[in-house]
Amino acid sequence: MSEVSPRPPVFSRAPLGALLALAAVVVGCQDDFAERFPAARLDPEQFAFGRVVQGVEADRAVSLTNVGGAPLVIERVAFDLPPTADALGLRWSDDPADLDARRGLDADGDAFPYPLRVAPGESLYFTALWTPRGDAPADAAVVLDTNLPDGRLRIPLTLDEGAPELIVDRDRVDFGRVPGGEAALEQVVVTNIGQQPATVQRPRLDGSRDFLAVAPGFPVQLDPGQEVALQVRYAPRQEGPDRGLLVLPTDDPGRPELTVPVVGNAGIPCLIAAPSAVEFRSSLVDRTDSREVLLQSCGGQPVTVEDVRLEAGSDGAFERVPVEAPLVLPPADGEGPLPSRAVAVRFTPRAERLHRGALLVTSDDPEKPVRRIPLLGRGVVNGCPRAQAAQADIVVPPGEAVVLDGAPSVDLDGELVRWEWVLVEGAPGSVALPFERAFDPANPCAGGPADDPGTPTALFCPQLPGRYRLSLRVTDALGLSSTVCETDQPVSVRAVPDEALHVQITWRAPGDPDPDDDQGPDADLHLLHPLGEWGGVPYDCHYANPTPDWGQLDNPADDPLLDTDDIDGGGPENVRLATPEPTDPLGAPYAVGVEYYRSDDRIDPIDYGPIFVTVRAYVRGERVWTYDGPPEEGALPGEKRLEAEGDRWLAFELRWPSGAVITVDRML
Predict the structure, then answer these.
(1) How does pLDDT run across 28-59, given as a tens digit for each residue?
(2) pLDDT for the residue numbered 11
(3) Which of 232, 249, 454, 529 is the most exposed place for a label (fewest CB within 10 A)?
(4) β-pair partners for 373
C-alpha cells in the first residue's frame, strides 16, 4: 500500500515481474500540506486479475482511503479502455461488508451520485467486474477526476496468469433466520486457481461477536488447483440483524485479503414476542390484572403487524386491549434494544380455577406469519393482609432514634412482600422521615438511606419535640394492600424532653437556594447561667462551650449540654439541663439567646441574607414559650428576623424553680 498519484499502468498477459509497477508520489510530506489537502491511499494499488476463464465473470476490489487533512471529492469516474476492449463493470460502497454494493459503471451507463465525498480517514470500496471474451486489452484503468493535487487518479487493471489466484466459492454468507439461543454453521471454500502456490493465513471475523470463524489447521498453503474449507458459526444471543466480515489474509498479490460479508437475520422481516407466554400466576377473583407483551422487530426489514386477536375458544376472563392495526415496526439495526410496541392483555377471573387462552399475532414475517402466545391465569380468593407494629405508641426524648418494626404483620393465606412506613403528621417544623438504617451506628440520628419497603423495619429520629403520627401499610404477594382492606396500623411517636429544661432553635433562610443540601447560614443557640455573660466561659453554654460544669462540681445533673451544633443551615440545635440551680440566691435568671453567626457560605461566594429563627422552650416536658413579638417582614408566626451576620438576640429569661418565663426580645 502507498499514498499515490499513479501514472498509467499496462494491462497485459506478461509475467508479474515484467509488468509496469505503479509509481508512487508521496502526498503530504509536510505537515501543513497534509492538513490543507486530501491524499489518496490505494489498497491494493491496482485491480490485479489472475487466471481468468473466457465468458466467466471475475472481480477484483480496491479500497481508496483519504489519508489527507481535507475532504477528497470525486467529480467523475470512468474507464480508460481501448475501443476493442471487453465490457467492464464497476460497483462501489462505503462499507466493506455491504451486501448490496451500488451500481457505478456498467453497460447501462454511469450511476454514480456525484460528487462522491470521502472525509479524512474514511474510505470507498470499488469492485471491478470483467467477463473476458478475447485477448486482454493493454493500458486499461479506472480513472477518477478528483480534487487531489494531481487532479486525476488512475487505478490500473492488470492480468497475470502466472501468479497465485485465490477465490472463494460464495460472495456472501447469509444465515437467514436463526432464533436467539440457537446456532447454525455455513461452509466457505477457498480455491487456488492460479499457477503458483498461495498461503491463506488464519481467518478472522470482524463485526458482530455472534459470528465465529472455525478454521482448524490454518494457516494453510494451497497448491494450484487445491482448495480448503472452513466454517462460519452463527449463534445469536437474541434475534436481530447481525453483520460481519470474514477476512482471510493471503499472499496473493492481487488479493492480499479475501473478504466475504456475513449476515444473519438481516434480509427479511422478523417478529418475536417477549415474553413468549403470559402467565397470571394468581389473580384475585373479580379483580382485573394486566400484563404486557412486547412485539419486537428482529429483522433487517420493517415488519408489519396486521392483526392482534384472542384465539377462538380462549377463556372469557382474558381481554385484549385494542391496538391500532396495521402496526409497522422499523428494522432492527443490530445495536441497542429491538424496536418494539407493547400490547396489553387483561385478566379478570370470575371463579377460583385455572383459565387458558392464547393471543394470535399476524404479521408479514415469512418464517412465522402467525405467532401464538399462550395465556394462562389462575383465579384465587385472597384474604386481607393485616399490618401490625411491634410498638404502636412510643415515647422518646427528642433526638433519639426509634426502631419501627412491622414484622408482626400477617397475611393468613399467603406472604407479605412490602412494608411501607409512611409519615402522616410530624411535629411543627420537623422534616424527619423514616429511613432504612443509620450511616453511622454511633450517631443514628445523623441519617441514612431511604426506607426499603422490602424489609419490615425502619429507623425514625424525631429531632423536634412533639407528636408524630405514622402509618404501617403492608402488601401481599398478590398485590392486595392493607390500605384497601382498611387494616393499616397507626403508630404514634411522641418526642418528650426528659430534662427539666430543654431549649431548641431552628431557622430558615429564604436566600438559601437549596435548603436540603449541606450548605447554608449558621445560627447559634446560647444558654446563659445567672452568673454568665454572652460568649463568656464557663457560664455561656454554646458551640464554643458545649459541656460546661455549672453548680456543684462532679454533679452532671446541673450541667447543661449542647447536643448538636448545626453549621449548615436550618438546625436544630438543642441545649438540655436536667436540674437547673435556684436563681433567687444567684441574683439573676437563666437567659436564652440566638446569634446569627455566619451569613456567607463556607464554600461558595453566597450571602444568604436574613434568617428567621424559631425558639422552642420546654419546662418539665411542657412547652412554655413561643415568640409572639410584633410582625416582621417575611416572618411567619413564631419567627424572629435576624438581619445580618453578627446580630445577637436575647429571647427570654427563666426563673427556677418556679419555671416562670419572662419575654425579653432585645437585640444586643
Answers:
(1) 344 555 567 899 999 888 888 766 666 777 78
(2) 34
(3) 454
(4) 359
Taking the C-alpha atoms of residue 151 and residue 69, their distance in angstroms, rounded to an integer, is: 16
> Which grid coordinates are listed for 594?
440566638
Q: Report the C-alpha gap between 191 and 222 in whole angstroms.
A: 8
The upper half-sphere exposure of residue 369, i.e. CA atoms within 13 Å in the direction of its Cβ, equals 3
Contact 58, 49 (CB under 8 A): yes
Condensed to tens digits (0 to 9), the pLDDT of residues 586-606 reads 999 999 999 999 998 767 778
Cis amide bond preceding 337, omega within 30? no
Q: Which tens digits make up the pLDDT trace of 351-396?
A: 989 999 999 999 998 878 999 999 999 888 888 899 999 999 999 9
CA gap 532, 541 in Å, rounded: 9
Strands (E), 95-239: 102-106, 109-110, 116-118, 123-130, 141-148, 151-159, 166-168, 173-174, 184-192, 198-200, 204-207, 211-214, 220-222, 227-234
What are the Cα distances from residue 309, in Å, to 270, 289, 343, 529? 19, 18, 11, 83
Residue 241: phi, psi to the nearest 5? Answer: -70, 140
pTM of the complete model: 0.41
Please state, in angstroms and rounded to a whole number, the distance separating the CA atoms of residues 419 and 436.
Answer: 12
β-bridge mates for residue 528, sequence order: 540, 591
Of the candidates 662, 655, 613, the residue with the CA atom closest to the CA atom of residue 500? 655
How confident is the model at residue 554, as a pLDDT? 80
Tens of pLDDT, residue by residue over 250-286, are 987 767 888 899 988 877 888 889 898 999 987 888 8
Q: What angle do CA 40, 43, 46 make, to 5 degrees?
A: 95
SS (H, E, C) 23-86: CCCCCCCCHHHHHHCCCEEEECCCEEECCCCCCCCEEEEEEEEECCCCCEEEEEEEEECCCCCC
Cell numbers that stand for 453 in this block:
419497603
Helix and strand element counts for the chain (H, E): 2, 48
Q: Residue 5 above 70 pLDDT? A: no
